[in-house]
Structures are given as C-alpha cells and as structure tokens.
C-alpha cells in the first residue's frame, strides 16, 4: 500500500466518521415523539416545552376561531384525556368537529399546547359526507349571495 | 367486460414472462439465435399484453364501468374527462398497473435498440427485465389487482383524491416520476446481464448503461422538480420541499444515479471503480423499490400513501431477493471487478469525481437514515417518532455546499495531473464570480450564512463551468475562424455528453440559488380583510376587491379577488381559491401566484365568512422561486443534450477538437480529453 493510498483511506475514514458523529447528534436532537393527549399528560413536567407531535380528534363544539387575531383554540381528545390547543394562523375552514388531526408544537407550562403546524389526517378512502354533515352549508350562502 | 379483458391479459402476461425467463436462461447458456429470439418475442408479447390491460383500464375509467373495482374506487361521473384519464395513477392498483406498463415499454425499447448487438449481454439483460416484470405482474394478479369484479355494480363512485384532481401538474409529475423510477430498472438489468454474461469487465456495458441512466435520470430530475412545483401550487403552504418520506424516496435514487453518471466516466476513461459502479447501479434500483415500498405499503403516512393490505410484504421479499441475487452475482464476478487504473495525482478531475461520489453517497445515507429511523424506532423501541426537518436541513446543508463547490472545481481540472500553474489559472479566476454573487446577495439583504455560502460557491462554479464552454468556443474561433455562435453549436454537437454536463451543472446552480434565496429571505403575513382593505408584504400591497362563489361540475369554488396596488393604481389582480369536493371532508386550496424573475407573490385563501363580509389571506413573498423551475428545465435540457446521438463527422470535427499548434497548444492539452463518447 502506497503512502498516498493510506492518506486517501484515512481522509475518507475521517469524513465518514465526522458524518456519523453529525448523524448521531442530529438524530438525537431532532427526533420528535408522536404522542396522544393521554401520553403527553402522563409525562408530567417532562412533557413541557419539548417539540412533540400530538395526534387526536377535535372535540366537537370546542372550536373557537377569532378572525381578527387569527387565533384558533380547540380541545384535542383521544377519548380519555384532553389537551387545550392554541394555534395561530390555521385555516379553520379545514376544520370539522371530530376530525383527526396531527399537531406539531410544544406543550406550555400554562397547560396549553401551542401548535406551530396542524395536519389533517387524510383518510385515503374518501367517503361521502354522512347524513347530517353538510359541508356545503358554509359556502352555499356565499354562492347565492354573489349571484354567480 | 373490461375487467375480464384486463385481468385475462395480465394472466397471460405472467405465463409469457415465465416462458421468456426460461428461454432467457437457455439463450444465455447456449447463445443460439433461436433462444435469443424467443426471449425478445416474450418481451414484445408482454408489452402488447400489458398495453391491452392498461388500455382496458383506461376504457373502463372513461366509460365509467363501475363493475371494475379500481373504477369504483377512483371514478366518478362528475369528474372531467381529463382527470378521469389521469386517475389511472391516482391510487395504488392503477399506479402499479401503470408501473408495469412503463416497465414493459422500457423493455421493448431496450431490446429493440440493441437487438443486433452480439454477445449474451442483451439476452441476459432482457431476462433480468422480464424478472422484474414478473414481480409486478404477480402484484397485478394478486395483492394489487385492479380488475376485481364489483357486484352489485354501483351507479357512481367517489372520484379520485381531490388533491390529485386539482392541478394540471398531476398529469405531468407522476408519469415523469414513473419514467424516471422505472427507468432505473434498465441500468440494473444491464448490470445483471453483464455479470451473467461475463462482460462486466468490458467498457461496452458501462457506456450503454451510462446512456440509459442519463435518460432515466433526466426523467427523474424533471419529476422531482415537477413534484416540488405541484406542492408549491396546490398545497397552499408556500413551500416546495419538506423532507417528506415520499420526497426522500424520489431523491435517494436520484443521488446515487447522479453519483453513477460521474463514476461511470471514471470507469470508461480510467478503468477505475468497477465494483463501485455495479454497487451504485444495484443500489439505485433497490432504492427505487424501497421508495415504492415506503410510499405504497401504507407504512408511512403521507399524501402519496395509499392504504393497503399485504403488498408491503411482497416488496420486502422482492428487495431481499434482489439484494441476495446481486450480492451473489458480484461475488461470482469479483475477479472481473478489480480496478485497472489508478490515481495519478490528487490534483486531478479523478479526485473530484471520487469526492463527488463520496459526498453524494453520504448525502443519500443521511436521507435514508432520517427516513427509516421512525420505522426502526417503532419496531425496536415501540415508540412513534418522526425525524424533523431541522435534522435534514442541518445534515444536508454542509454536503450541498461542498457539492456545489466540487461542481465548479471538477470541470476545471484535467484528467491525470494538473500542474501548479494550471491549477492557479483554472481555479483562481472563478473566485470573481463568487465575489460578485456574494456582493449581490448581501446587497439584497441576505444574511443567512449557509445561504450566502451556497450563493457564493454557486457563483464560483457558474463561472468555472461557463469558462469551460467559452474556452472551447475560443479554441474553435481561433483555430477555424468560426463565428462565436457557430463555434458554440459545433462545440455542443462535437461532444454532447460533456456539454450537456456543463449545462446540467448550470441548471443545478440556478436551483441552488433559488432555494437558498427563497428559503432564507421569505416574508409572510396573514390578515383578515374586509373588501377595500389592504395588506402589505415586502413592499407589495394587495387590496381585497371581492369575495365570490361559483359552482363547477365536480366541485364548488369560493374565491377572493385581490388587486395589486402600485402608486395608487391597480396593477393586476390575483385570485386565490378554495375548492369543495363533494366526496371530501376538507376543502382543497388553490393558492394564486404572481411570478416574476426576481420572486413570487403567493396568496392563499385561509378562511372566509360564509356571508362574504371578510376573508383571511396569507400573503408570502418568496424571492427567486422561479429560478428553481427554470434551473430544473436547464438540467433536463442538459440531460437531453447528453443523450442525443453523437453525430459522426470524423474528419473536420476530429481535427478541430485537437488544435495542435502555436498558442493553442495549452488548449489542446485541456481538450485532448474531449474524445467522442
């Protein structure tokens, strides 16, 4: 083995080692746990102020949207436990009572989950609205009103 | 009826493929023309059969034949014809059918284009293509059968996923992606063919494979850019890349294929990296299958993931089979896979190519680890986790910065060994480009260190690549007295692969600058407006004019009309919309974008009062986003340039390429490596 070759191998090994170290550190810091409200509450104080993904259903009747401050508040439930959620700048038209959502954000010491992003859990099989669900109602009036 | 025709054609196709593989083994061993013809006939027949099946599906979709399970799943009488046709790839079974069809098409073209080539390489490669086809054919008659009979026949269906029928790019992105993804099967088949026929030591198969990889790589590049564009135009968040598992799935084989495009040249010119190249080709193929597994098995939730049953196990078994078979073949060919050439000097293009391969591979592994980590964590520790965007950004930015720099250094360095003087002449002047772009970026207000580094190094590399083109033109201009335009054209056609490479590099720099600027200098605001009220973002003022609603055949639309106000005058309008599909619980946004060379104004309708008295809009200003799309186009043009057949004009071209006398001697040295490919 020539000295040049040794250097090349040493260099490659060094790059891979640095990369491995970065990979480990990066994963350690950026893994986000996926929790339900019950699991989040069970963490106690350890659940505060760390980034988590929170999954559950929007409790029917809990959605409050302030269109002036653009703040959305609702309660997320997994059937047994419930977490109050606050989010800014979330389009409320995407919202249905009872729908499944995944939130990204932090649970604050004020016991409110501050969501930075909100994903609707799309079910892949799209189903027709059930009787009683009338998503059209929200825009029907507008279509009539504009007369187009 | 359509169901019977389609399913029948697929059943026969399985039989034909099995017979074809048998004939392939005989052809490979005996090498007689009759057996070889039998393999090729199987490839042609399979194409006809899968085309019949796909055609039957399209007919079923267009005629709303709801007795076919796939049509009952994605069809709807209200869906416009255009979206009905493209719903062929809007759910699992249809997309696997389309996949199978693209694969059979590739197989036909590969066999037809190389049918007169001597030796066992092509028959064995055709057999390998049939082997992969067999896997997809089995999926299509088993777990992903799109032709189940539905009884009683429904009168109407739900229509395709609203997200997938909301934009014209849905007709562009998926077919390009399949052409790119499935196309990676061809290099794999050539590698298998070369190993089985013992031709792995020849340069012949690597040249052939290089061209076919370029083709698939061009499609895959276009598909990735089109996917980013789709995400930008449809999802309403103003972004184009989120390190979503599906995006990663398309990006990983792109990285390894890019590495191969470079390392294949190393093998061709210097006889190096033979074993590495086989690994890259096999790896790229496995990554495409892994990507399909991730996105089609429902194991990872995303826009692209379709819920399914057992199909994931089929994919895992196939990946295992491919890996074991490839490993066995590589081991059996180990004596033919040694390097003949060696590095002459650290200051050479070879070194840069090696580094490029190292960093591209490191990049791929980063993305792979980040993508698979949640699966591993759930399997081993039983916790549900996700790996956030910060991980990917933090890991990839340094790699991207190094790669952008290497893309400038590589083309400037000669093969073999560069003298100290040559290094200085080649590597110092492009620094002016770096200084210029850095100054412009700082003046424009860019402060993010990573973004500044990307822009500056892109400036360096743009100059380095453009200089190679200019030097070539100059040589022709001086040697032959050609006008500059003629010199450029002749230079491009004289060595298309090399010229296409420069072009693709320049496209990548445009993409890199676009991403650096748009991600680091984005400004956005949200506001609830009454008609007549305004919002200002990054110096652009928008005034709400009206809120309106409209019924369309397949959906209801609510929109807002906003006016651009410049110096008190109206300078254009922009209309973000929200679409309500009957089969969907949530509305699908259609953000409105006004593009200019320097940046986009992006408006998304977030919310509205049902009485139309106010709307909430999000307005984003993103600089240089159009550069990403334009850069993607340049990359594709580069790929096309490289693939076009080399015109053979032996006499004039050959001596023009090697000007040998006088002041041009130095240039001759640089261009001595410009051989016809």
Protein architecture, described:
The complex is a heterodimer of chains A (148) and B (677). Chain A is of the alpha+beta class. Chain A has two domains: 1-31; 32-124, Nucleic acid-binding proteins (OB fold (Dihydrolipoamide Acetyltransferase, E2P)), CATH 2.40.50.140. Chain A contains three helices and seven strands; from the N terminus they run H-E-H-E-E-E-E-E-E-H. In chain A, strands 2-4-5-7-6 form a five-stranded mixed barrel. Chain B has 677 residues and is α+β, with helices and mostly antiparallel strands. Among the domains of chain B are: 1-160, no CATH class; 166-335, Four Helix Bundle (Hemerythrin (Met), subunit A) (Up-down Bundle); 523-626, Tick-borne Encephalitis virus Glycoprotein, domain 1 (Sandwich). Helix content of chain B is 62%, strand content 11%. Chain B has 22 helices and eleven strands. In chain B, the strands form two sheets. In chain B, strands 3, 4, 5, 6, 7 and 8 form a six-stranded antiparallel β-sheet that branches. In chain B, strands 2-11-10-9 form a four-stranded antiparallel β-sheet, with helices on one face. Chains A and B meet through helix 1, strand 1 and helix 3 of A and helix 13, strand 1, helix 14, strand 2 and strand 4 of B.
Offer a quick outline of the entry.
Chain A is an alpha+beta fold. Chain A has helices at residues 3-30, 37-42, 137-146; strands at residues 31-35, 51-58, 64-66, 71-77, 82-88, 100-107, 112-120.
- List low-pLDDT spans of chain B: 650-677
Please, what is the average pLDDT of chain B? Answer: 89
Name of the CATH first level of the domain at 166-335 in chain B: Mainly Alpha
Structural class of chain B: alpha+beta
CATH class of the largest domain in chain A: Mainly Beta
The count of helical stretches of chain B stands at: 22
Beta strands of chain B, count: 11
Cα Rg of chain A: 23 Å
Number of helices of chain A: 3
Task: Please name the CATH topology of the domain at 166-335 in chain B.
Answer: Four Helix Bundle (Hemerythrin (Met), subunit A)
Our count of domains of chain A comes out at: 2
Oligomer: heterodimer
Largest sheet of chain A: 5 strands, mixed, barrel
Strand content of chain A: 25-35%
Strand order of the largest sheet of chain A: 2-4-5-7-6
Approximate helicity band of chain A: 25-40%
């Amino acid at each position: 083995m020539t000295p040049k070759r040794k250097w090349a191998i040493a260099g490659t090994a060094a790059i891979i080692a640095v990369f491995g170290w970065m990979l480990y550190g990066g994963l350690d810091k950026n893994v986000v746990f996926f929790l339900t409200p019950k699991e989040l509450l069970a963490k106690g104080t350890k659940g505060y102020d760390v980034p988590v993904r929170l999954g559950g259903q929007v409790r029917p009747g809990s959605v409050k949207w302030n269109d002036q401050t653009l703040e959305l508040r609702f309660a997320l439930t997994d059937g047994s436990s419930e977490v109050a959620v606050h989010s800014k700048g979330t389009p409320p038209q995407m919202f249905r009572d009872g729908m499944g959502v995944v939130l990204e954000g932090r649970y604050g010491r004020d016991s409110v989950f501050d969501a930075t992003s909100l994903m609707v859990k799309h079910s892949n099989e799209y189903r027709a609205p059930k009787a009683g669900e009338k998503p059209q109602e929200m825009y029907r009036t507008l279509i009539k009103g504009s007369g187009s | 009826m359509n169901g019977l025709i389609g399913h029948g054609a697929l059943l026969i196709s399985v039989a034909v493929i099995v017979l074809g593989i048998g004939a392939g083994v005989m052809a490979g061993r005996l090498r007689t023309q009759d057996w070889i013809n039998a393999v090729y006939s199987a490839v042609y027949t399979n194409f006809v059969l899968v085309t019949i099946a796909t055609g039957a599906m399209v007919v079923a979709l267009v005629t709303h034949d709801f007795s076919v399970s796939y049509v009952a799943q994605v069809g709807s009488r209200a869906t416009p014809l255009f979206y009905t046709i493209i719903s062929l790839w809007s759910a699992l079974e249809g997309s696997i059918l389309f996949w199978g069809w693209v694969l059979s098409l590739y197989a036909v073209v590969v066999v037809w284009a190389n049918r007169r080539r001597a030796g066992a390489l092509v028959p064995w490669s055709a057999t390998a293509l049939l082997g992969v086809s067999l896997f997809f054919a089995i999926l299509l008659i088993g777990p992903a059968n799109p032709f189940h009979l539905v009884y009683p026949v429904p009168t109407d269906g739900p229509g395709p996923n609203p997200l997938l029928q909301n934009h014209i790019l849905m007709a562009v992105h998926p077919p390009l992606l399949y052409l790119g993804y499935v196309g990676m099967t061809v290099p794999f088949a050539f590698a298998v063919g070369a190993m089985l026929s013992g031709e792995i030591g020849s340069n012949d198969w690597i040249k052939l494979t290089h061209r076919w990889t370029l083709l698939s790589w061009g499609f895959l590049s276009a598909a990735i850019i089109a996917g980013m564009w789709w995400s930008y135009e449809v999802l309403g968040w103003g972004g184009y890349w989120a390190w979503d598992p599906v995006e990663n799935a398309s990006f990983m084989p792109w990285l390894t294929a890019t590495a191969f495009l470079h390392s294949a040249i190393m093998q061709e010119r210097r006889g190096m990296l033979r074993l590495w190249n086989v690994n890259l080709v096999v790896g790229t193929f496995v990554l495409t299958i892994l990507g399909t597994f991730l996105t089609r098995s429902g194991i990872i939730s995303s826009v692209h993931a379709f819920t399914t049953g057992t199909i994931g196990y089929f994919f895992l078994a196939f990946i295992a089979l491919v890996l074991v078979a490839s490993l066995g073949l590589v081991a059996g060919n180990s004596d033919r896979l040694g390097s003949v050439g060696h590095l002459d000097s650290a200051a050479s293009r070879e070194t840069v190519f090696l580094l490029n391969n190292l960093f591209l591979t490191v990049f791929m592994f980063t993305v792979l680890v980040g993508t698979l980590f949640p699966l591993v964590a759930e399997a081993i520790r039983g916790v549900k986790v996700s790996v956030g965007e910060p991980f990917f950004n933090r890991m990839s930015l340094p790699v991207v910065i190094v790669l952008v720099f290497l893309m400038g250094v590589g083309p400037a360095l000669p093969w073999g060994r560069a003298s100290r003087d040559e290094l200085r002449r080649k590597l110092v002047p492009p620094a002016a480009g770096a200084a210029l772009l850095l100054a412009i970026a700082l003046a424009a207000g860019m402060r993010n260190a990573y973004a500044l580094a990307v822009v500056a190094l892109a400036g360096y590399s743009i100059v380095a690549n453009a200089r190679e083109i200019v030097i070539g033109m100059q040589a022709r201009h001086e040697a032959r007295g050609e006008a500059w335009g003629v010199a450029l054209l002749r230079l491009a056609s004289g060595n298309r692969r090399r010229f296409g490479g420069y072009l693709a590099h320049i496209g990548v720099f445009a993409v890199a600058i676009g991403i650096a600027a748009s991600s680091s200098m984005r400004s956005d605001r949200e506001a609830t407006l009454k008609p007549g009220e305004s919002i200002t973002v990054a110096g652009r003022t928008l005034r709400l004019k009206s809120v309106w609603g409209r019924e369309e055949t397949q959906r209801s639309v609510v929109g807002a009309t906003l006016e651009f106000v410049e110096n008190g005058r109206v300078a254009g309008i922009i209309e973000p919309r929200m679409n309500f599909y009957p089969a969907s619980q949530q509305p699908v946004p259609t953000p409105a974008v006004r593009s200019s060379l320097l940046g986009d104004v992006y408006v998304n309708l977030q919310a509205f009062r049902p009485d139309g008295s106010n709307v909430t809009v999000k307005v984003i200003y993103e600089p240089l986003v159009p550069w990403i799309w334009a850069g993607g186009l340049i990359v594709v043009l580069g790929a096309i340039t490289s693939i076009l057949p080399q015109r053979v004009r032996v006499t004039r071209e050959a001596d023009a390429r090697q000007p040998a006398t006088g002041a041009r001697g130095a240039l001759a040295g640089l261009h001595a490596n410009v051989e016809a490919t």
